[in-house]
Amino acid sequence: MNILCVGAGLSGAVIGRHLAGAGHQVTVIDSRDHIGGNCHTERDAETGVLVHVYGPHIFHTDDAEVWGYVNRFENFLPYKNRVKSTTRGLSGGREVFSLPVNLHTINQFFRKTMRPEEAHEFITREQADTSITDPQTFEEQAMRFVGKDLYEAFFKGYTVKQWGMHPSELPASILKRLPVRFNYDDNYFFHQFQGMPENGYTAMIGKILDHPGISVKLDTEFTPEMGEGFDHVFYSGPLDGYFGYELGRLGYRTLDFERFTHQGDYQGCAVMNYGEEEVPYTRITEHKHFAPWESHEGSVLYREFSRMAEPGDIPYYPIRQVKEKELLAAYVKLAEETRGVTFVGRLATYRYLDMDVTIREALDAARGFEACLERGEAASAFSTAPL
Ligand code: UDP
Description:
about 375 residues; alpha/beta; Rossmann fold; 12 helices; globular; binds uridine-5'-diphosphate
């Protein structure tokens, strides 16, 4: 069969590879001039640093099959994400704290030397608002689990900057991404497998796409008419974009990166968050620290600013507020009525997806498609609706 994958990011590459391996003819197109989507990495000519062009991507998963999959294509080297936060402590002065909120953060913040059980009791009895039994919003979730002081220092300002709205208007699910620990474990992620591709994500995705059954066309804008020349389309572009934004635009946050260079080590870590609302950026990333096995004199850094995506901006984070959810439901209905197209990945399903989940869903979609053909069903009958 002739398959079109729209988007040369993780979804398009993984689906394309699976179907090419099953004997199909796959065309992968992308509107950009490079593969890799937002995971794209590029070596900076001046410093030699591997730059995460669209912001940092750290691979972490509990999914052993997905971990095995990525390691088939690229050597993954150990990397633990250890994030710091510069924010105002209780004294009002700026300090550097450890994230995610852990025993070191709690002891430093409250100028104490508590052991795990003592800290747990202190937070639960003296800080947390235990009258909140079923937290719905980001703010309620924070107040329930860490209380006002830590919430205001680490989460409130950062979240207002990141999402452009008050944490009381955001779902609790966003904060649930972050653990609170009553030990000194400062690993940002709790997943079993964690690492970085030795030569970057673009090299890895290049190898996934490197198959005689796959042809890649860059600088190629998709139009729905293009699908007519194929037996099936896997579309990983924006859901609303597929329908020409006919019902309106789904809300996204976009990021502006202010790139700067430095000789030596600028901040001593890969990610420094800024918890205060007064500091206009959310974080500074120092890219050479994402590849600790390399050594470079020069350094490339990004100051990260978040704002509402306008037409033409790169969509990063789906907002999924109530009004977006209603619009999403209307687009999902349109998508379900569209035969011959499967909507996959972060943009086409309008979800805040991590890389491992994207790969898992891409593998499942490709396998589901194959199973559908094996049952003798028409390719056009296959569809996984966006969630
Ligand atoms: N967050 C925060 N303070 C921090 C880091 C994160 O308030 O220092 C909140 C913020 O709302 C963010 C969410 O937690 O959007 C999830 O954080 P994560 O680090 O997973 O965000 P990502 O790296 O995906 O942007």
